[in-house]
Amino acid sequence: MRVAVREQILEIIGATLTLREQLLARAAETTEVVFPAYTHSQPAQPITFAHYLLGFDHLIGRDVERLCRAFAETNRSPLGAAAIGGTGFPLNRERLAELSGFDGLVVNTYDAIASVDYLPETTAAVALLMTNISRMSQDLLVWSMFELGFVELSNTMSTTSSIMPQKKNPGVLEKTRAYANESIGQANSTLISLKAVPYGDVGETTYLAYPFLGAASNAADAIHLFAAVIDDIQLNDQRMYQVAQDSFCTMTELADTLVRAAGLSFRQAHEVVSTLVRAVYEDGRHAGQITLSDLETAASITVGKSGLLTNEALVEALDPQTNVTRRDILGGTAPKQNHDDLSRQRALLDEQTTWFHKTRDRLAAAKDARATVDR
What is the CATH architecture assignment of 2-243+331-364? Predict the structure, then answer.
């Protein structure tokens, strides 16, 4: 079981590393693509698409680390435990482990037979990875809607309607989203199968492998599919920028500008901008149509002041690109920070890829050693 499971873990890790390569490749291409980040499903602040992709890559990078830890727990040898109490023959358990490609022993022979906790742990790690992919799939599905039109999948990645000739459905994203449902069920199944099983050598523990193997097979398919989606996705840069400009998501920077340039407290600036937004919105206009006169009126009503900003300062504050550029702190969305984050994430990808290949090579070397050992 441990040998079969470790092979599946490595297959999933390999697929996830490919996904990380695609995420970082697209991030490198989109450090200047500005669009609105959403909080509570509403436009919040302008960011770059690279910043979004990098955030997701951080998450997927942790999924790889979780799978590596699951591999470490799985890749421990039970050999020599025999039925449960060990054996009377003078076996060298360390040598058996080495020849089998294990990284170490499950030392206690009772633990080696009775404990199968590596299976629910590994299945849970897979379910979390699939859940994370499902979340980004949902984002891309929403952003591909006609009403937003931020992204589009190619014909290769889309399906048609049975009767509606105009339809181009992003069906692949529905598929990657659906895979999470099965993996969550399989993770639950491993725990349910184990919870009332005595702590010993019992037949039910064997069945824990089945949910994991099902989850692993689906996960590998879904990850490869999602990596292809990331490579395929087409961005509507102009539409993304326009929504960032019109949707009032530059208002935080306007409030910040009032603090920096006019000496208001942030509470005062927040009140001024809130009043401004309400008036412009009720007037049927969008953020790109805010004027200096609108700001003057709002400031007069709320703080009894005028002349807080020049028109130039107002225009800069309402510019999504300026909003992005000014978020130039460690991990922020400024293009410079995107490039720095890319360098860090590529270094992590290199480190994880090196571990993956070394592990594969170590298992292959163990197989060769078994073939030539003096029996």
Answer: Up-down Bundle (1.20)
